[in-house]
């Protein structure tokens, strides 16, 4: 028709037909439930590194060497560690068996402990204040490289253990030398100074306690 041809030739002159059909008032689904991106998804933004770029790049490209240590390289380390443990046990076993104990000199010098006790009884009768000094001497002797009696050694240059600053106020050297001289006359070259110091400290503590408990009179 002429009206249809006019609409096709001049569409701007004609208003569109109105739609009187009822419209839905419901909102689209995507408006009610907006899409939320989960926060745990990996981000494309790189995190800042606390290390300089060169160090961070080098550590990222080259893992630690220990991570790739082969079995052939670990085997010598394991064998060396096992040998060290066996060596320590082998050295410690005879030393533990040779430690000083009651009756240690029963076969070589049976009167050793009795002589030390008698001498300590006389020494503390003369000066009871030597008891803590002898206990201190035993501690200082064992503190440096074990209980070897090295605290009794003298040095002309003043470099001996007894010349050290903590040992300059030590008392009791004369008491140990007195007991040592007595034992040398009875059992020559048998009882060591380290054992004399240990037995003297033990007997000194016992005698002081006995005096406190009135078991034995020192004065």
In short:
The protein contains eight helices and no strands. It has helices spanning 2-9, 29-32, 53-61, 71-97, 112-126, 130-143, 173-186, 193-212.
Can you tell me about this structure?
- The chain has 219 residues and is mainly alpha-helical.
- It has a domain at 112-212: Peroxidase, domain 1 (Orthogonal Bundle).
- It has 8 helices and no strands.
- The chain has helices spanning 2-9, 29-32, 53-61, 71-97, 112-126, 130-143, 173-186, 193-212.
- α6 (130-143) packs antiparallel against α8.
- The termini are far apart.
- Residues 28-41 and 92-97 have low confidence and may be disordered.
Distance between the termini: 150 Å
CATH class of the domain at 112-212: Mainly Alpha
Low-confidence stretches: 28-41, 92-97
Radius of gyration: 47 Å
Keywords: Calcium, Disulfide bond, Heme, Hydrogen peroxide, Iron, Metal-binding, Oxidoreductase, Peroxidase
Binding site for Ca(2+): 141, 144, 146, 148, 150, 161
Pfam family, one: peroxidase
Disulfide bonds: 109-187, 142-147
């Amino acid at each position: 028709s002429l009206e249809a041809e006019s609409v096709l030739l001049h569409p701007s002159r004609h208003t569109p037909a109105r739609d009187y059909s009822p419209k839905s008032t419901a909102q689209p689904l995507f408006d009610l439930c907006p899409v939320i991106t989960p926060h745990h998804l990996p981000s494309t933004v790189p995190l800042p590194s606390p290390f300089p770029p060169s160090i961070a790049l080098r550590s990222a490209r080259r893992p630690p060497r220990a991570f790739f240590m082969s079995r052939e390289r670990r085997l010598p380390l394991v064998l060396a560690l096992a040998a060290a443990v066996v060596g320590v046990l082998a050295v410690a076993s005879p030393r533990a068996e040779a430690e000083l104990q009651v009756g240690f000199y029963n076969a070589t010098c049976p009167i050793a402990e009795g002589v030390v006790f008698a001498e300590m009884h006389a020494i503390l009768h003369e000066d009871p204040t030597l008891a803590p000094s002898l206990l201190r001497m035993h501690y200082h002797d064992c503190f440096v490289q074990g209980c070897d009696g090295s605290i009794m050694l003298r040095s002309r240059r003043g470099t001996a253990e007894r010349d050290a600053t903590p040992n300059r106020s030590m008392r009791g050297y004369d008491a140990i030398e007195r007991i040592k001289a007595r034992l040398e006359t009875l059992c020559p070259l048998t009882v060591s100074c380290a054992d004399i110091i240990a037995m003297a400290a033990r007997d000194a503590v016992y005698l002081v306690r006995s005096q406190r408990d009135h078991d034995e009179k020192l004065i």
